[in-house]
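User: Fold this one for me? It's DUF4185 domain-containing protein.
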Amino acid sequence: MRTTNHLTTTLGLLALTSLSLIGCSGNQETADTAVAPPTYKLIPAKKVLFNSFVDCNMAEAWVGDTFRIFPGKYGEDPLWGNARDLKYADGKHAEEAFASKASDFTEPVMPKNVPVGTPGLHGAVWFETVYQDPTDKSGKTLYAVYHNENYPATLPYDSATGEGYIDKKWPQGLTGPTSPAAVCRIGIMKSTNGGKAWENKGIFIEDLQPRLIMKPHNTSKTFAGGVGDPSAVASGDYLYLFYGEYGYPGQYEEKAYDAQKEWSGQCISVARIRLSDLDNPVGKARRWDGKGFNAPHNGVGAPIAALQIPREAGGGAASSPTGGFYWGPSVSWNTYLNGWVMLMGKVTGSSWAGSSIHISFNPHKDLGEAMQSQAWSKPKLLLDKPGYFLWYPSLQPMNTPDDVANKHTCLRLGQRARLFVKNIRPEKSEYKSEHIIEFVK
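Assistant: Here's what I get for DUF4185 domain-containing protein.
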């Protein structure tokens, strides 16, 4: 989650060149399986421009016969200012909701930020995924997985709990040398009235102060560390969280810092929590540690190896100004392919620079069986727009009989879907769709 004013200078150095589209050849084997990933084609389509603020994955759900979306940002932010942009809009289908005017959005009732040193909601939040309780036939019981950002000013270190951050050798943020970098973590909110009002349930996963990466090593102008930019899907009795891991895989110590070690613990990772624990999630989630979901919610896990960029292929640590990692996963179950699809961005420089979107597949429905949560194909280039920063790609349903009848969302889709992505360049930022993706068996 980043505000885009800081990109003007950086992007001004980039030359705008032609759009490049690349499809999957279908010859790359998935991890731990001999099955080749599906083929697909990206089809140019009439431009759909979203009319409200988006700086995250698009969270959405069908509430009865209403398709409801939840873009935007809410809460305190000493760097960018307090925000009241997290709102919802409705439609009879996805296309109608996405076409909503700015005036059509409604602000939900949100929990208030609490004072420093008080338990509760600190910092700003963005809804990334909405999980809908299937036992509530009205569709009104929703759980929002949110990305949360804090600073030493909003969440100072508490030695009694180990929570919070120490403002010492703090890395630079996005608005200049005196601005602080944020720390991200992931939490859960609940609504029982279809998203019109929300209650904070607490933190899903986080990295504590010892894992944050400080000066002089952290020069990326992104995060001081933490976990964020998630996408969550239900499989069996669990909610699986795919997220960006930006911390050090162990305790960061300035004199012992190792860039190779930092890279080894980043960047797209997976954790899970029982669906029955969503009402009381704090401390209940477990991260993948390389063998199973064994690491605690604030412990050291292991990234999905197939989604790491090898060092020899340009992969790098998240604290590096040269980047070299995938981030911002968006995961969906595809009923046509009978498998999972993941989109992601790629960071190639400081301040989240990167002009390409990539795609990966996992053919295993049960993400809890053996190594199946790790069985993703090597990412393939889906879309490249040199001269732009491309953030937050997702596949979205359309106004087709199949999409409407099956109440498809970004979490569950069919053979064809709209590709949405945030396009950023110096003069403007647009969240839009200019392509349809079609999968082919």
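One thing worth pointing out: Residues 4-33 have pLDDT under 50 and may be disordered.
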